From TrEMBL:
The keyword Membrane applies. CDD domains: MFS_ShiA_like. Coiled coil: none annotated. InterPro entries: MFS_dom (IPR020846), MFS_sugar_transport-like (IPR005828), MFS_trans_sf (IPR036259), Sugar_transporter_CS (IPR005829). It is found in: Cell membrane. Its main location: membrane. The lineage of its organism: Bacteria, Bacillati, Actinomycetota, Actinomycetes, Micrococcales. Keywords: Cell membrane, Membrane, Transmembrane, Transmembrane helix, Transport. Residues 28-441 form the Major facilitator superfamily (MFS) profile domain. Gene3D superfamilies: MFS general substrate transporter like domains. One of its GO terms (cellular component) is plasma membrane. It comes from the Bacteria. The keyword Cell cycle does not apply. This is MHS family MFS transporter.
């Protein structure tokens, strides 16, 4: 009986692979990748600007520590807005289709980023600039709240079942492209004279996001709707209240998704924003040097672009849960030695730490996560489920990490141990969560049932 079941599952998977449209798969991969690139380009330029520039530009009356905390607070506000964007656009995605949402979110997110580059500073307009910065960060967060959920859902529903981990992780190469663009841009402009940087040059990375917006919208207009949503429409199974259905049937899987994301998303923010600030602040090991962190992110992103796909493909072979579990464990094990090494003042060691933490620690969780989150949920409320799992955890981990970290650093006289313990705790939360996570590799995503 077991042999027959396995044979039937194999035949079903082969049949599923046979109906995949290569052109649609290519377009979906490209569309998702460009969107991911824009989101993480915005993510990194805003994170780096929060760590290095926004404090003195918009919050100078608060003093160095106060300005940094206020700057990271605006960073966190964007994350706080993301669940609301996830709910709103998740509803649209499950009610009216995945394609529409991907066009709306990229336009909203990119326009907000472009507008940040036009803001007046405190010296030019007092607190008006800070107020507008917060408002645009909220708009940016609303768009970003469904961008990755949409990209993940779209590519998972289009990809061949047996290689879903590989294809679902490909758009996340766009994350590394966005990181390369964002960190590379800041690494270059950080070399400029401080007066030029804080005068007008900081605006260039934000204004340049217009190019990515135009490319992404052009590509996404040519997309077809996914097979899973087409099946829902064909059989009149589209639900009128996907949010209500999600909370009735999938509370456990939403909690699982949140727990899985804590180690990945939280450590991504710690390594990419908080660590950069820790090194360059007045009491840091590289005080006043604004280029070491961005260059480290640049190196890490190059390795991460390869590793996210590698770990996604490994999850096709060995299962989502084992790859995720050992990735979270690895991130926990390296936490204390990694952040201690940063304090030694060796630039090469810092870059190695950032590369290992981001390219192996974070990507070993992100790779299997790309297909796993969509596979947890039934097709009727999948978009909403993925959005809620991603964005609630983004607030609890990614958004709060720099803010809480900055507060704890200020309270402990900038102790590196704060970063190590924070990283360790977040990784352990994900590690423990994997023991409650069902194995989802190979699921039929046309199914309206949740993974159990």
């Amino acid at each position: 009986m077991l042999v027959i079941t396995r044979t039937n599952a194999k035949l079903a998977a082969e049949a599923d692979d046979a109906v995949v449209e290569p052109e649609q798969l290519r377009r979906a991969t490209l569309a998702s990748s460009v969107g991911s690139a824009l989101e993480y380009y915005d993510f990194y330029i805003y994170g780096l600007a929060s760590a290095l520039i926004f404090g003195p530009l918009f919050f100078s009356p608060l003093g160095p520590d106060g300005a940094l905390i206020a700057s990271f607070a605006t960073y966190g506000v964007g994350f706080a807005a993301r669940p609301f964007g996830g709910l709103f656009f998740g509803y649209i995605g499950d009610r009216f289709g995945r394609k529409m949402v991907l066009i709306l979110t990229i336009a909203l997110m990119g326009t907000a980023s472009f507008a940040i580059g036009l803001l007046p500073t405190f010296e030019q307009a007092g607190m008006l600039g800070a107020v507008l910065l917060v408002a645009l960060r909220i708009v940016q967060g609303l768009g970003a709240g469904a961008e990755q959920a949409g990209a993940t859902t779209l590519i998972s529903e289009v990809a061949p079942r047996r290689r879903r981990g590989f294809f679902a992780s490909l758009p996340f190469v766009g994350i590394q492209l966005g990181t390369l663009l964002g960190a590379g841009t800041f690494a270059l402009i950080a070399m400029a004279d401080k007066s030029v940087l804080q005068g007008w040059l900081w605006r260039v990375p934000f204004l340049a996001s217009f190019i990515l917006i135009a490319v992404a919208i052009f590509i996404r207009l040519k997309l077809k709707e996914t097979p899973a949503f087409q099946e829902l429409e064909k059989h009149k199974n589209v639900v009128k209240n996907p949010i209500g259905e999600l909370w009735r049937h999938s509370k456990k899987n939403v909690l699982i998704g949140i727990g899985l994301r804590m180690g990945e998303n939280g450590n991504s923010s710690i390594y990419s924003a908080l660590l950069v600030s820790f090194m360059s602040m007045p009491a840091g090991v590289f005080a006043g040097n604004n280029s070491i962190g961005p260059v480290g992110l640049l190196i890490a992103a190059g390795f991460a672009a390869v590793m996210v796909v590698t770990f996604g493909a490994l999850s096709d072979k060995y299962g989502r849960v084992p790859v995720y579990r050992y990735g979270a464990l690895f991130q926990a094990i390296i936490a204390v030695p990694a952040f201690y090494l940063v304090t030694l003042g060796n630039v090469t060691l810092v870059w190695v730490v950032m590369a290992v933490g981001i390219a192996i620690g974070v990507q070993s969780m992100l790779g299997p996560q790309c297909p796993l989150l969509p596979e947890l949920f039934g097709s009727q409320y999948r978009f909403t489920g993925v959005a809620m799992s991603r964005e609630i955890s983004a607030v609890l981990a990614g958004g709060l990490a720099p803010l809480l970290g900055a507060l704890m650093l200020a309270a402990t006289n900038h102790s590196w141990l704060v970063l190590a313990i924070y990283s360790l705790v977040l990784a352990l939360i994900s590690f423990v969560t994997t023991f409650f996570t069902p194995e989802t590799a190979g699921r039929d995503l046309v199914s309206t049932e949740d993974a159990k």
